[in-house]
Amino acid sequence: MFLEQGINPENKFWKYLLGSAFIIAASFVGQIPLTAAVFYKTFFEGKALPTTDSDFMKMFESNVTLFLVMTSFIFAFAGIYFVVKYIHNQTLLSITTSRPKVDWKRIWFSFFLWTFISLLSFSIVYLNDPEKFVLSFKLVPFLILVVLGIVLIPIQTSTEEYVFRGYLMQGFANLSRNRWFPLLMTSLVFGSMHWFNPEVVKMGNIVMIYYIGTGLFLGIITLMDEGMELALGFHAANNLVGALLVTSDWTVFQTHSIFRDLSEPSAGIDVILPVVVIYPILLFVFSKKYGWTNWKEKLTGNINIEEINQDHAKLNS
């Protein structure tokens, strides 16, 4: 069982606090190239020192910015590997899935399913109001974006999934010894990490419904499927398609995408629809394909610590 793989008498919650601090520190180390580039622009090229995230993002050509920002996720992922192996004495597989090996078919199914839905949704919006968008396609910058995106964006999304649906999900399970608390806490923390995104500033706090709801959806499919392969595929598709297909001046990333959204941002049905309609449909599709049952126990039940301790005792005897 996925959560149970992280339950161990030696796996105290303070280790997860220590591990989280180490992962954050590794991420900050990964930001050194970006910081160095900013100081170079400031002191050697006379650029104004940026004071906001938006200023940072606009200081460089967008592909360069993407590369510099994504570097921190490479270091963070290395931090996850170190923490899991040397602080918790676990394998990376143990915070990925309860299966004997990673099920790549699950990852690809989730990836292509969400890619299809994302493209279909954009097509409907575009055909309904094409004046909101302008074609901004430039072949060479776009091809560079494709290469950078395919390599770096899955690292970014996988890092986030390993932190929230893997590492912290098991960490909160160690603390609470049940399933609902890890699901709730990882969703809230995941959502709060997006609090300072430009989208929230532009559209208001109501957009947090989308971020927290997305975290809840990813947590549910991880617990129901006893592994985070589906979450890995979904998250990668969501960010990669978004980066390649459409960008705007008010999103966290501006990329050399195919289209640029010219509309003024507003929080409406597009914020609520995925959480209350599309995600439940996806849950239904996944549940039918993978035969999910016993929803209440898997999402809210207690974890049998005595049984886990007996299993550990047998392994150590």
Structure description:
The protein is mostly helical and 317 residues long. It has one domain. It is built from 13 helices and 3 strands; from the N terminus they run αααααβαααααββααα. A 3-stranded mixed sheet has the order 1-3-2. The longest helix is centred in the middle third of the chain and has 38 residues, at 139-176.
The best one-word shape is globular
Number of domains: 1
Count helical runs. Answer: 13
Tell me the strand order in the biggest sheet.
Answer: 1-3-2
**How much strand?**
under 5%
Uncertain runs: none
How many strands, what sense, and barrel or not for the largest sheet?
A: 3 strands, mixed
Radius of gyration: 21 Å
Report the order of strands and helices.
Answer: HHHHHEHHHHHEEHHH
Structural class: mainly alpha
How many strands appear in the DSSP assignment? Answer: 3
Let me know the average pLDDT.
91
| Helix content, binned percent | 55-70%
Cα distance, first to last residue? 22 Å
Protein name: CPBP family intramembrane metalloprotease
GO molecular function: endopeptidase activity; metallopeptidase activity
Organism: Flavobacterium potami
Pfam families: Rce1-like
Topology:
Layout: H1 13-30, H2 32-44, H3 53-57, H4 62-86, H5 104-128, E1 133-135, H6 139-176, H7 180-192, H8 198-203, H9 208-225, H10 229-245, E2 246-247, E3 259-261, H11 269-290, H12 295-300, H13 305-316
Parallel strand pairs: 2-3
Antiparallel strand pairs: 1-3
